[in-house]
Amino acid sequence: MKRGGLLKFSEILRYSLCTLIFGGGAFFLFYLKGFFIFHPIKTVREMFRRTDKNGISPLRALSASLSGTLGVGNIVGVAVAMMIGGAGAVFWIWISAIVSMILKYCEITLGVKYRKKSAAGFEGGPMYYMENGIGGKFGKACGALFALAAVASSFSVGNIVQVYAASDAANIIFGMNELVFGLIFAAAIAFVIFGGFDRISRVTSVLLPAMSAVYILLCLAVTAKNAQLIPAFMKEIFSQAFVSESACGGALGFLFSRAFSEGVCKGTFSHESGSGTAPMAHANAQTDTPCRQGLLGLFEVFADTIVMCTLTAFVILAAWKGGAQNENGMGLVLDAFELGIGRGACYVIGLCILLFAFSTLICWAYYGKFCLSYLTRSKKAGKAYMAVYLACIAFGTLLSQEAVWLTADVAIAIMTSLNLPAMILLRKQIKHETNVIF
């Protein structure tokens, strides 16, 4: 397929993703009567209630799931969205998060409901609720198709995007050769992923809070320094959100704008709601009811997108006010922090990027291998997958920035287009589990 045809195909998928996210989110908000909006105190109380002290705790499962979402998408993804769609993209990142919270809840609830016991703990995910929830040959075929899409996506969303950003940071800050960096990174990741999900959850439960705290503090420092500009930032975000680039114009012309498509796509890349990844991690948690584990998905989207992406956006807007110009997403982020705090901040941010990418890579390695084992049940296939996955880490820097993010957007769109219809078909089961608590 020629480059023009590929870009056109990706645009169709991107707008399909926007339709699915907004349509699916609105449907479930109405169908479940917006329970978390009308019962916020009960939602928070039930969200963090621990009911079983054995096995992997709900919060450790949350940490593992967050490690697949918190990271490059929250930092470089936001920068790329703003470079293409302007400040208005931030508004649509927010909207995609608000609408998608309920989707994350629904898919995690289904993942826990239809999981099955295994020698290592529990196994769950869209494949299982498609096969056992929808049932029949159709359900099994849907599960296999989703698993295949997830395996393919693990090489783009979970691998190349992460490695590209991490090696970019290492090269810009430390002048490190990309191939050398990739080999070292691959060796470190191999040590963790061959330890299984328990080791993955232990590593991410330590890394994530520390990384997130450092990154948030640096963002707050830049934002506080430019506090007087926050009203101007908000005005810029809202004023550019509805700017139409379409020949259609009119009241709905903004739907064809770069701000809209980039904001929704990068927002979805950031929180991955509806794409089916979170249920695979959350299915491992020891919990007494699927609904309670699903509630953690609401917090996951809030922390990942509303908090982290907004802080990144404010730092970039402050840098633009200071005259920063960079056509590379990672370069723009580093320039922004250097302008905001000083050169020393770049080293800290670079380390955060490396660790965020590291945690996402090990989480997606689990997702990919898990989906492949669902398809083949072959240990040899699992070993071959890991070999290819680790090889991609070493060579993930060879693509252009445009190609890297294009493949990621397409991968997320395909997974979501397979998962969301299954969730709608199983809506009654979701409502039944929700009624257990609400």
Could you explain how this protein is built, in words?
The protein is an all-alpha fold and 438 residues long. It has a single domain, classed as Up-down Bundle (Amino acid/polyamine transporter I). The protein contains 20 helices and two strands. The protein has helices at 3-31, 35-38, 40-47, 58-69, 72-85, 88-113, 126-134, 136-154, 156-174, 178-193, 196-225, 230-241, 258-271, 278-282, 290-321, 329-340, 343-376, 379-395, 401-425, 427-437, and strands at residues 116-118, 121-123. It has a two-stranded antiparallel ribbon with strand order 1-2. The termini are far apart.
Question: Key features?
Answer:
mainly alpha, 438 residues, Amino acid/polyamine transporter I, two-stranded antiparallel sheet, 20 helices
Give the structure's gist in a few sentences.
This protein has 438 residues and is mainly alpha-helical. Helices cover 79% and strands 1% of the residues.
State the CATH topology: Amino acid/polyamine transporter I
Note the run of SSEs as H and E.
Answer: HHHHHHEEHHHHHHHHHHHHHH
- Rg measurement, Å: 20 Å
- Give the class from helix and strand content and strand pairing: mainly alpha
Mean pLDDT: 83
Biggest sheet, spatial arrangement of strands: 1-2
Q: What is the CATH superfamily classification?
A: Amino acid/polyamine transporter I
Largest sheet data: 2 strands, antiparallel
Strand fraction equals: under 5%
Helix fraction by DSSP (H/I, runs of at least 4):
over 70%
Number of helices: 20
Number of domains: 1
Topology:
Elements (H helix, E strand, L loop, with lengths): L2 H29 L3 H4 L1 H8 L10 H12 L2 H14 L2 H26 L2 E3 L2 E3 L2 H9 L1 H19 L1 H19 L3 H16 L2 H30 L4 H12 L16 H14 L6 H5 L7 H32 L7 H12 L2 H34 L2 H17 L5 H25 L1 H11 L1
Antiparallel strand pairs: 1-2
Helix pairs in contact: 1-6, 1-13, 1-19, 3-15, 4-11, 4-15, 4-17, 5-13, 5-15, 5-16, 6-12, 6-13, 6-15, 6-20, 7-8, 8-17, 8-19, 9-16, 9-17, 9-19, 10-17, 10-18, 11-15, 11-17, 13-19, 15-16, 16-17, 17-18
